[in-house]
Amino acid sequence: MKNTQIFTIHDCLKQRAEMETAARAIRDGKLVVFPTETVYGLGADATNADAAKNIFLAKGRPSDNPLIIHIADPDEAGIYAEVTESYKKLADAFMPGPLTVILKKKDIIPAAVTGGLDTVAVRCPSDPVAHELIRLSKKPIAAPSANLSGKPSPTSPEHVLHDMNGRADVILVSGDCEIGLESTIVLLKGDEAVILRPGAVTYDALCCVLEKVSVSEAVTGQLKEDERPLSPGMKYRHYAPTAPFVLLDGDSQKVLRFCCERAKDKDALFLCFDEETDAIGKDFCLPVGPRDDLRTQARNLFSSLRKADTTDAKIIYGHLPPKTGLGLALYNRMIRAAAHTIQEIK
Ligand code: AMP
Ligand code: MG
Question: Is the CB of residue 144 less than 8 Å from the CB of residue 100?
């Protein structure tokens, strides 16, 4: 157990002492939890192999699941990776922001960070605390989500303190994450971008910048037993609550009728839309947001999955999201949490 220093940051430009302490910890090869606009990250100096190895240990993360490196300025990517024209276009359009780009790595990034791959994932977060931490530390920061491996990513101070108090050296908290789902990850193949993980930078937004954009089959489908995904993280069990999680697909009125009937047995929990709570009964509901508000649903998803785990529900139901816009990111996280269990309601 580490003696974790915890700082609540209200203004990272004014709280110099706290920010300097965290930046020094990064330079000293220690582990620092920090907020980003997507989810909280567990960071260490990305040029220090031993520091990076400690991230895997603290999370219980398999060492072949590579880390994303976080930089303060998109133009710095060239120090750590081979930058291409497509990267520059994406950086101009979406950085700082919730987009990660996979590029050929340079030697300065140790294999421990990239799980032995010759590529590295690069992202420039827009969150001011994240930005200031990277800038002050003068290091690229390797950081996966700050959850214990297999658990939903942390989106609130409560989640990070639950998972990382005693495991990280410093924890910076600054409220709930704005987006609540991890970054979009794209692999660049010449002028083509392949979405390996959907996020708040959507397929449509990427199509406005690059001519060829595709979505990896692993985003919506199920991997075969011995299949090697382009993004190693895709093969691991993720986000799943302890009770079975089932996604309901069908006409909205019919799905609501099913939920109301099923609620009578009092053993199920519903990750429902706000407007359905009264009909189903609020004791059995974890409302995730209004039906038409995917942003709120995205912000609440991981928190709801964590809350679901603290109940004694025998089964958890949710709505199958659309595969369009931000819905694709929700779909990807939810089908994985549900181990691809979809029940069609006719
Ligand atoms: P996390 O940091 O927990 O959001 O997870 C990072 C994700 O990025 C994982 O799914 C990794 O498999 C993926 N990733 C990181 N680096 C690479 C890379 N070089 N190639 C493909 N996927 C990567
Ligand atoms: Mg993660």
Answer: no
pLDDT of residue 237: 66
- Among 40, 141, 185, the mutation site with the greatest number of ligand 1 atoms within 8 A of its Cβ is 185
Look at the pTM and tell me if it is higher than 0.70.
yes
Which ligand is closest to the CA of 114, given by its number?
1
Pair 38, 182: CB distance under 8 Å: yes
Q: Which CATH class is domain 5-219?
A: alpha beta
CA of 233 to the centre of ligand 1 (A): 6
CA 143 to ligand 1: nearest atom:
2
Residue pLDDT, tens place only, 209-245? 999 999 999 999 987 777 777 877 776 667 888 899 9
Nearest alpha carbon to residue 169 among 27, 66, 17: 27
Instruction: Calculate how far, in angstroms, residue 25's C-alpha sits from the geometric centre of ligand 2.
Output: 22
Sort 110 into a burial class: Cβ within 10 Å, 0-12 / 13-18 / 19+: middle
Superfamily of domain 245-344: Threonylcarbamoyl-AMP synthase, C-terminal domain (3.40.50.11030)
pLDDT digits (tens, 9 = 90+) for 133-168: 999 999 999 999 999 988 899 999 999 999 999 999
C-alpha 283 – ligand 2 centre gap (Å): 30
